[in-house]
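Submission sheet (multi-component)
Chains listed below:
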Amino acid sequence: MERWLNFLEVNASRILELTVDHAILVTLAIVVALAIGIPLGIYLTTNEYLAGVVLQVASITLTIPSIALFGVMIPIFSLIGQGIGFLPAFVALVLYAQLPIIRNTYTAIKNVNPEMRDAAIGMGMKTHQRLWRVEIPNALPVIMAGIRTAVVLNIGIAVIAAYIGAGGLGVLITQGISRGDNYLIISGSIAVAILAIIADAFLLMIQKFFTNKGYSQVTAER
Amino acid sequence: MISFKHVTKAYNEENIAVNDVDFTVEQGKIVVLLGPSGCGKTTLLRMVNRLESITDGEIIINGENSMDLDAIELRRKIGYVIQSNGLFPNMTIEENVMLVPDLLGWSKKEKRERFTYLMKLSGLDPEEYGKRFPYQLSGGQQQRIGVVRALAADPPVMLMDEPFGALDPIIREKIQDEFLQIQREVKKTILFVSHDIDEAIKMADKIVLLRDGEIMQFDTPSEMLAHPKNEFVSQFFGKDRAIKSLSLHTVKDLQGIIGLGEVDDSIQDTKTINVHQDLRNTLSMLMNQEADQVIVTDDEGERIGSITIDLVQKYLHFEIKGKLSVSQEG
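Outcome: structure written.
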């Protein structure tokens, strides 16, 4: 126990610094992933054919092992002199986050009660009015669930990014493995876990805040 | 006024949903589209606000061809009520009701006034219900709000697709009565889809009976019951159509033609019935109780006479069977 405390005393500031790096990498990747994924998911609800193709591609992306995807990024980004470091890791994380975000957005809007949609059209709402006033508000809980999945997924995958020099908590773990230092491995792992739990709880709070009172009750009753 | 002029809808050459349908809903009247499921009644209704396309023919709404208007504009001028009320769970009752006025850009004050007026019209307290969400209301209240919402922007025409179909029989009857009360005040031109014969007889000024996308008969409920045009119509209304037709007549009608019996004060514990009650309910009341007569009261509760099974039978014979026999000869 005493050795633990010693270890933490020496390394606390480094752990904190790496946690912040990790959080920044994931946050930036998620922000960009949202900016692409949500509009795309919404658009796909109006284009059945393209929806099949895009969801398939996103599914395949998610099956690529992360270490392999990072590996593929290196030669590609070497072309612009960014072979290792932040940029390839960032791009890979954006790709991984796409599937849960696009799929949940698409499914959530598609699954809005067809009678509700019928009423909205029959009352004379234009497509964008129907989307903003009826479909998105009622799809929000499922969309948020997708975002939460993407964030937790990315926090985990970003650990691997340490191998291509992107920094973050993966650094503790990879160093721990190469030096055979269990303290490094365990503290790195715990920090990742705590980060994931905090991020998920924070997003859940946001979800509850933005989810309309009427809808949350309806889903609770179901 | 809504006129269907030789309206046809075909999905392909074999699959014809609506075939050469031609009728008119007069200003301020209720026409019920009635028929077995798959007869095209809902399709026909949805062609009016262009949720379904028209293959051939035209629909004229208050002098304008529906296809000449912008679909969005057209829909905002038509009240639309569906079976499962279609209220939006993310909006309060007031937001739900005032949706079309909001789309049309009414001011806050106008919306507020209209909301208060409509809620009072339907017997709901605007203050109490305005801020609630749909899930906080009972099924019957939600359906009332569904109707109120369709009336929001005061559209001249309303489409109602089995609006009371999901309600239990007791609530349904109550809301039907309330709706007829409202209709007496607002006098909308209404196209109403139903598969319930009793509902159609009760609500309709005229009924369009459909089978496989074709009109079997277009008539007032009493004409249709008395003079079914063909085998399908008479079968659809059933062997008890004479009894069904009793629901179109009230005790007052009977009083006017053959008069009521005297009140026998020696009989204790007899039930009373209002003079505006329909004869079908009167008959079941007479059959359900031991006594031979039921006391008829007017609106003030004064006893004005009595009614017996014999009298109802006599009325049925003269008024309704009389017409029936004529139709059989013809």
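Remark: The two ends of chain B are 33 Å apart (CA to CA).
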